[in-house]
Amino acid sequence: MPDLNGYRVVAVHAHPDDEALFTGGTLADMARRGAEVTVITLTLGDEGEVIGGTYGNLVPAGLLGGLRARELEDSARALGVAVEMLGGAGFFRDSGMVGSPAHDDPRALVNRQDEAARLLRTRLACLRPHIVLTYGPDGGYGHPDHVAAHRITHAAAAPEQRVWWAIFDRESHRAGLEAVMAPRGWQKPDEAYFANFTTAGAAVTYPLDDASLAAKKAAMAAHPTQIWLADATVSVTNPRAAVAGVTDPGVVAGAYALSNLLVMPLLRAEHYQAGANCPPQATGLLDGLRP
Ligand SMILES: [Zn+2]
User: Fold this and answer.
1) Strand partners, 131
2) 147: CA distance to ligand 1 center in Å?
3) Domain with residues 8-274, CATH architecture
4) Keyword Repeat, does the record have it (predicted)?
5) What average pLDDT does the segment 11-18 reach?
């Protein structure tokens, strides 16, 4: 039902795969219901770790970003949304972790945040979103590019544009993990790993129906160098099928892992905290907004 005709939504993300992992179900649902949805990705995740050996050499060769640009386009197609890379593909470089050489690279996003904010302000003025999705002040888990995405988005958003922070809600993930049995060879994350999810407590829980979950899973599968779905599918990077046990399908829709092979629950909801310009009592992302 196209009940969101006339609404415009922008999601600002740090790397290819974040659009799927943090906000994929929400974006697919809103797009299917008629909203104009645009993902703006800030870097190509050039410094990311990859699953398996097939593409492992692309990182030291400095070639991973080009492949991830293609994965991002495939993901956006699966979600049914438009996608842009700020400044064009490869304009801002992945900042890597603090202390790494990539972090000091003058092309890195962290070293060009004012420039990125100016460019993003221009794009937001053109796209005129009602709401902008990005991360909280800690970036969701502390990666420098995610923290920068938060700062850049808040510097760029106009006062009438509501900024929501997509989070990996700690309690929901902890509960979801209870309902998952790790595939052979994968591990369950320990408590310290959950402490990485420095955000806790959501203002908005966005439930994902079967169609939204299917689109989110397809978008995740479009990032085979980054995400391994434990649903018995194989990909160019994981020739061996992994199957997670799910003891409570009402709580989780499946499981996946990143290159660390720590099993994560695929929740039936996505979570948001109120950022800038959000009404304090809002329980929906578009509450009170007119198309
Ligand atoms: Zn990221």
Assistant:
1) 9, 162
2) 10
3) 3-Layer(aba) Sandwich (3.40)
4) no
5) 98
